[in-house]
Amino acid sequence: MNLYSISGVILAGGKSSRFGSNKALINKDGIPLIQYLINQLESVFSEILVSTGNIYYDFIKQRQVKDIFKSYGPLGGIHSALLHSSNEKIFVISCDLPNINSDFIREFVEITLKYRNSILKVDNRIQPLCAIYHNENVSIIEQIINSEKSKTDKRTLSMYNFINLIKPFIVEASKMNTYKKNILLNINTQEDYAQYLKSLFD
After folding, report:
1. What pLDDT, on a 0 to 100 scale, did the predictor assign at position 42?
2. Which of 8, 13, 173, 1 has the alpha carbon at shortest distance from 89?
3. 75, 145 in Cβ contact below 8 A?
């Protein structure tokens, strides 16, 4: 299959404070979850970047990108990835999605090729960390971060505020051929992980 001229980006620089350890390293099919996600993206995209904040993963061969704006969460990671990408667009996922797979990602990309910004919607909720962003958003993110309002109202820095500004094309996950329940399950806590492991045997 052809690789798309889009950079696949994994956001893996979070503190994982609710989980208690780095959730990018939890076991998925005998390998760290982050390596599983890299493997899925490699079969779809021409370039893979790992947005690491200030973390370094010594076993990862792909390019690791640190945040330029520190401590701004996913918004800072997306900004840095857009600047370092060799392509106009990036596909972004968080590092805690054990059920997502290359077939689902490829279908999402196929649906959204003609749009500059696209986002997945699951169960009536948009998913800012399963989305495609164009590099025109670099200046928008910089304006948000540098605005006076961001210093007094942290909601200005939320991904949802950013999404409202760029108005992306929305893809209803339930209408996709490769959609399965819990495909965007994310692991935030040890309880989430235990439930995920249990689901493998249900």
Report:
1. 96
2. 8
3. yes
Domain spans, the chain? 4-199
Give domain 4-199's CATH architecture: Alpha-Beta Complex (3.90)
The model's pLDDT over 118-128, given as tens digits with 9 standing for 90+, comes to 999 999 999 99
Tokens standing for 51?
Answer: 């947005």
Q: For strand 89-94 and strand 4-11, is the pairing parallel, antiparallel, or unpaired?
A: parallel
Instruction: For the chain, state the CA radius of gyration.
Output: 16
Q: Which residues of the chain have pLDDT under 70?
A: 1
Within 10 Å of residue 63's Cβ, how many Cβ atoms? 14
**What's this model's pTM, rounded to 2 decimal places?**
0.94
- Which of 168, 16, 172, 156 is closest to 94 using CA atoms? 16
Residue 1 pLDDT:
67
Residue 149: predicted pLDDT:
77
List, as one string, the DSSP characters of 56-73: --TT--SEEEE-SSTT-H
Which H helix or E strand runs over 42?
A: helix 33-42
Distance (Å, whole) CA 133 – CA 79: 10
Which residues lie across from 133 on neighbouring strands? Answer: 90
Q: How far from the centroid of its chain's Cα atoms is residue 133's Cα?
A: 10
